[in-house]
Amino acid sequence: DVRVRHRRAAPPSASAARRGLRLKPGAAVVRSDPLTGGLRLLAKRDGFLTGPRAASPRRVALDYLGQRADAFGLDEDDLAAFELSHGYTSESGATHLQWQQTYRGIPAFDEGLRANVAADGQLINIGGAPRPDLAVASTVPRIGAREALHTVARSAFARVPLGPAGPSRGPQRATRFDRGHRASLVLFGDPSRVRLGWRVLLWAGTEGVLDAVVDAGTGELLYRNDLTRNAAALAFDNHPGAPQGGVQTPKDFSAAWLSDPGRLIGPNAWVHSDPNDTHFEGTLPTATDEIPPTGGAWNYVQAPQAGLICPAVGCSWAATSGGSWMTNRRQAGTQLFYFVNLFHDHLRDAPGIGFGASSGSFEGSDPLYAQIDDGAGTGMGSLPDCSSVNNASMIVLPDGTPGLMETFLWTSGCGAAGVYDVNGADDASIVYHEYTHGLSLRLVTDPAGYGALNGPQSAAMGEGISDWYALDFLEAFGFQPDTSAPAEIRAAVYENAAARTQGFDCPVGESTGACPGTPTAGSGGYTYGDFGRILGSPEVHADGEIWVETLWDLRRALIGAHGASDGINRVRALITDGLRLSPAGPTFLDMRNAIVQADVNRGFGDRDLIWAVFAARGMGVNARTSADNDTHPVEDFTAPPPLPGPPPPGDETAPVISGFTMTAKRFRVGLDRTPQAAAKRRRRTPVGSEFRFRLSERAKVVITIERALPGQKVGRSCRPPSRRLRGRVRCTRYKKQGSITRSKRPAGRNAIDFSGRIGIRPLPRGRHRVTVSATDAAGNRSKRRRISFTIVRK
Q1: pLDDT top residue among 528 and 43
Q2: CA distances (Å), 681 to each of 580, 791, 794, in order?
Q3: Contact indicator for 26, 46 with CB cutoff of 8 Å
Q4: Alpha-carbon distance 227 to 180, whole Å?
């Protein structure tokens, strides 16, 4: 990415507006994008940006954007150039919206707008780093799509036959080639300028599937990313020989899974073999690659082989015998078909997850193409070459295009000491890990729908998330029990491979040796400060262990607080909703905040527990990181103070507010149409509101004035005008004018009388409510006292 070494500052006016947002009550999170200078994320850790509103989620988000366009650095022309590209409502009731930013119909590469709106119309967060004044001198490319594809192929040292070009959309704006390659025009903005470019999708065989941008004027390669997600990690219900789920049992492939009685194909998946590593989008398997039934059923028993090194149940192939993988080919294909369909249904139906068609799941027109024995015949004598072993991968394209899962053979014959000669398609932890990449890369996307977990931190979280969903499923169904002992939850046990450095259930500070930790920090579970140090340098699978260990702590904590069933449902909801609420290219701290916001939106009330878990892993409230590509984040172990709650019944230590009265003046605007009356209406004469109340002791007073009706606009905050009351009295919602004074006459031993007049400008007509509460130094909060009144205009 040619942009990573440059930064673009926000315009001065936008910077000032963002500083103002940070100063508003509610601990606002304001993140600017270093590449565009746009507003990447605006949210609150412990609440919503707006109150409830009876309007469409799209209108809620766009109205908020319009009211704060200065903070985004946008004008009316910018706002008109957004095109809604995707939107759906998840199980929580929240609606998740994504807009592309365009110029003359050409989309921006990764600038856009993303918003999440709660079921009652409250805005959860908004952002996406749209670029102010997006434009380019010419929308006519100087080089064609074919030349751009050749540029990307050369950059990867890949010899790729392009074949004939397919139909184009618009004047040379989008072209599909044979073998699944494609190219379309985009606007690529770096910190100094915007360039017209070709966004290329190139299926480069063993080099991966490349998403790239080529300058349409000069042919310069501007961006390249491999969409293949590999797991140097790692059916039966678990894996052959496992203590639980390690024996083949009869399964029923229902019509919901199987649409052709002669092939392993259905609405959710198509499983076949690919020994020559030649199948990708647009290239279909041959009849010999299909997995047919025998006698109308796929009752294939795994036949043990004598490989180089084998588990107790025997190898599934022999690295010393060419073509030995063919013996269990049909059994492995049957197993993979069972795994991917079972996990598809789990992610769709499990409470809290809800990864269905609207979220971008793999079904219908874009099922999963899942391959066994990938590359098994690419070496000598029907053996795999060493680039086609000890791995698995998942390729995820935008919703509407099938996903591609590749499973490989495993062996010690290519230098991996102690690894068994087995088939990765037989291991649930590998298959579920890869499938979960499909979930995370369909929920966290750029405006064009491409997965946006590509930087060091976000890609590490992608690996950790895949590990977590796989092991969460296996543990919940009893195939991978989790007791109090450390280092029980592991990956790649069937392969006997050190796919991860330690168990996912290693607590911080573990000293028994079961959790080796890092050479510098010593034994125990990993923390945020270990990022980039686990293997001595950044590596997504190793750094992902920090994230999966944190999520496993969260799982245990919620189970401890709510029981197994409710706790598991809660943690699944929080993590999945966190992905939906996350910005593109999130850091660990962005995803932490998204999980906290998910708790607020769900109303679970686990905020303090969540913060305690993240703080223990170095992601406390004062942790810092600059961006997704920051490989040296600063950890912190501080949890924010608990939110003040209502005092317990009968608690006499809490402040008491008594004698609360409120008087609001109603006013009229004349009906005559004289110029003087019109001018008076434009001035919108302020309304005076008088109040009196008594506070039992010294405490901080909060006065809130708000609309009682849902969907009404909330105004600005204010501070008390009296110096002696600053820090003691805070008025929120509408701008206050006037004074708040304490009585000179003692009201009692510890009591204080307050009286005054609040002038509101402008106070909209309708029903309003004044709320007064107080909190003392110990955090005890009084009961809220409320009085409603109505403003009318005639």
Answers
A1: 528
A2: 45, 15, 11
A3: yes
A4: 14
Helix 588-602 vs helix 607-616: crossing angle, to nearest 10: 160
Parallel, antiparallel or unpaired: strands 194-203 and 209-215: antiparallel
Two tokens at 630?
């920051």
Residues 176, 203: Cα–Cα separation, whole Å: 12
Beta-bridge partners for 662: 691
How many other C-beta atoms can be found within 10 angstroms of the C-beta atom of residue 398? Answer: 18
Which strands form 392-395's sheet, in the order they lie side by side?
228-230, 392-395, 403-407, 368-372, 269-273
**Tens digit of each residue's pLDDT (9 = 90 or more) over 537-577:** 999 999 999 999 999 999 999 999 999 999 999 999 999 99
Residue 218, classed as helix, strand or coil, is: coil
Strand 687-695 to strand 736-742: parallel, antiparallel, or no bridges (unpaired)?
unpaired
DSSP letter string over 433-450?
Answer: HHHHHHHHHHHSB-TTS-
What are the tens digits of pLDDT across the range 611-632? 999 999 999 999 999 999 999 9
Residues 6+ apart with CB under 8 A from 472: 555, 568, 571, 572
CB 144 within 8 A of CB 138: no
For residue 380, what pLDDT band results from cuts at 50, 70 and 90? Answer: confident
> Would you call 695 helix, strand, or coil by DSSP?
strand
Tokens of 592: 């932490």
| pTM summary value | 0.76
Q: Which residues pair with 707 in a beta bridge?
A: 768
Interstrand relation of 123-127 and 106-117 (parallel, antiparallel or unpaired): antiparallel
**Closest Cα to residue 460, out of 542, 390, 368?**
542
d(CA 532, CA 511): 22
Cα–Cα distance, 241 to 397 (Å, whole number):
35
